[in-house]
Amino acid sequence: MAASLGRFCKSGLLKTNYGTLFNQPVHNFSTANQWSRGRKMLLTCLGVTAGSISALIYALDSSVKASASAHAPTYNWSFYGLLNSLDHASMRRGWEVYKNVCSACHSLQYVAYRNLVGVTHTENEAKELAAEAQIKDGPDDKGEYFMRPGKLSDIIPSPYPNEEAARAANNGAYPPDLSFIINARHNGENYVFSLLTGYCDPPAGIPLREGQYFNPYFPGGALGMAQVIFDEVLEFEDGTPATASQVAKDITTFLMWTSNCEHDERKRLFLKGSLVFIALSALTAYLKRHKWTTVKNTKLLFTPKHKK
Q1: How far apart are CA 219 and CA 180, in angstroms?
Q2: Quick check: helix, strand or coil at residue 214?
Q3: Would the CA dihedral through 253, 259, 261, 265 be positive or negative?
């Protein structure tokens, strides 16, 4: 296609008017117009060619990205909608899933125990959860570090002291921090739920190294995390049946809150702002009607001026 456009542009540029050889001063203006027209045609051809190449590269790039992983379906989450809030009972169960299943490998380094107060636990319950953790503190008056029970102000401790230790314990794979995992992934909540419930046997022709597991929703398909969500993997304290889908739903809802802790407050402010806006709009309409009613109902009568 580019070669054809080049030949077409070349033929347009090389087209000459032989009459100009004998009458150059007379046809000088038309020759200049012809060359100007040729330059415009050349630029047009170059633009079309560059646009076609860009479109081809974009299409190839999109096809590669589309084939890298399966697209996570969209589920009907309870927090979708302008006025829908997070399910706090599900978030409490999600904390149980994190504590008993996910905390062995993943951290929540941007969430403190005090953040759980009034959201998933009461203040006393959050203090008890914090006291169960041993936090490294110090130095003391002797310059030594020591371990103490956790407090509400403490960050939820990481299972590994550093990244190198985490990689060494997971065959070189680094378990990501889950504090903002929903926001860090495209279509985050649906991606996390699909990833946790999407493990399957690899199709023919896709080799996996030792310590890798196949998941079609993970880019590339080879995932270093084994399947950890099963039916009855734990028992919820409120008696909810711990099916695999229920467990995945609850941990996803909890991680939705850790990534968007202002979620409910944002929608509450939106509702308040909408009510104020409606009230002010009604008041403005009434004042406009009240102020302009005399102007609109005033009858102006013009009488012709009589001649003397």
Answers
A1: 19
A2: strand
A3: negative
- Give the DSSP letter of residue 70: P
Q: Is the peptide bond between 176 and the residue preceding it cis, with omega within 30 degrees of 0?
A: no
Please say if the pLDDT value at position 34 is more than 70.
no
| Partners of residue 273 on adjacent β-strands | none
Task: Centre a 10 Å sphere on the Cβ of residue 255 and count the other Cβ atoms it contains.
Answer: 27
Q: What's the start-to-end Cα distance of the chain, in Å?
A: 88
State pLDDT tens for residues 172-203: 889 999 999 999 999 999 999 999 999 999 98
Which of 93, 100, 92 lies closest to 120 in space, CA to CA? 92
C-alpha to C-alpha distances, 97 to 63, 68, 243, nearest whole angstrom = 36, 29, 12
Token digits for 122? 């009461």
State how far Cα 236 lies from the chain centre: 30
A 10 A CB-CB count for 116 gives 22
Query: Is this prediction's pTM over 0.70?
Result: yes
- Residues, the chain: 308
Q: Which of 174, 175, 178 is nearest to 188 (CA)?
A: 178
User: 134 has which bridge partners?
Assistant: 149
Give the burial string for 260-289 (b: 16+ CB within 10 Å, else e).
bbeebeebeeeeeeeeeeeeeeeeeeeeee
